[in-house]
Fold this sequence. Notes:
By secondary structure, the chain is an alpha/beta fold. Helices cover 20% and strands 28% of the residues. The chain has one domain (10-117, 166-235): 3-Layer(aba) Sandwich (Glutaconate Coenzyme A-transferase).
Amino acid sequence: MARNKVVASAADAIADIGDGATLMVGGFGLCGIPEHLIAALRARGSKQLTVISNNCGVDDFGLGLLLGNRQIRKMVSTYVGENRAFEQQFLTGELEVELVPQGTFAERIRAGGAGIPAFFTPTGVGTQVSEGGLPQRYGPGGTVLQASPKKEVREFDGRRYVLETALRADFALLKAWRADTLGNLLFRKTTRNFSPMMATAARCTIVEVEELVPAGMIDPDAVHVPCVYVDRLLVGGKYEKRIEQRTVRAKGS
């Protein structure tokens, strides 16, 4: 008999995420973020978290809720430009930040799920990505206490490549559109983003879904993440689904 993966509440879903855990959190901006799991983790209050996610939400929503509650110790991200609390905590030394080119970020996660410890990529060669020196943690007066290290660079077929290591996590917190009771997942359009890769690269994958259907109701050819990668399912209920940034065009432009 298949194991029941459905949990009763968001609090139950994240109950074993303790201080110092490393998390992968799906989402691109505020698109496809696990709203209920993030809120439950804020209520739980786990501290000193390392979070691997494309960005850190906004000041009062998404991962910004954890940041505002001083629960995140380190962010591994590709973009951090919509969050004042992020900027303040980074510049005052409260937050360690590892910035990663977005394609490299995706591939490091994919490699982690595939059991590949490292790979070579041309992205970042000849910049601080490969040469080192990107600030990761600041000290008093804007001094750099910690900077990114220099990475190995090798030449293949006349082109230079930099060595990047895989990313893995203790937990992945994801949001899907639909799942069956076995844990097979479907994402809706751009909400898929990094989530399928993250599901493979974490020790425990926790997914909140908008719709839960009986096993067999999802066409196997349509499955984005097979159930073998999913450990817990939460039916999320209502979603706020905010827009991160709304651009208003002037009349006649």
